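Dear support,

I submitted the protein below through the web form. The confirmation email said the job was done, but the results page showed an empty box. After a refresh the structure appeared. I'm attaching both so you can tell me whether what I see now is the final result or a partial one.
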Amino acid sequence: FDYHLPPKEAESRANMISNIAYDLQIQLTNSDEFSGKVTILFDSNSKSDLRLDYFLGKLGSIRTNDTDLSSAEIYKNGVIWIPGNLLLKGKNKIEIQFQTPYSRSGNGLH
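What the results page shows now:
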């Protein structure tokens, strides 16, 4: 599958969100994968669905503005879709726990 962000979607997302900050915590292991948590803070001017890219791995908990989405079907083919009805106009917070295999292609952690 093709997980790359098409230019039109990139433009739409750039017009939708601003003031983006990431807090990334990772735990490196001697196994074939590492785990971590990312907190994404941003301002939104829209309540449209938001695309986040996450290629190859397992998602644990996902929270958007304190709403648990862990059991929702929002991840497919390298894309996490955050429902627009959970986004606020103004400040937003998304927290994602994940497990990702180490890269063997030279991209990412290896």
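Response: this is the final, complete result; the empty box was a page-load delay. The mean pLDDT is 89.
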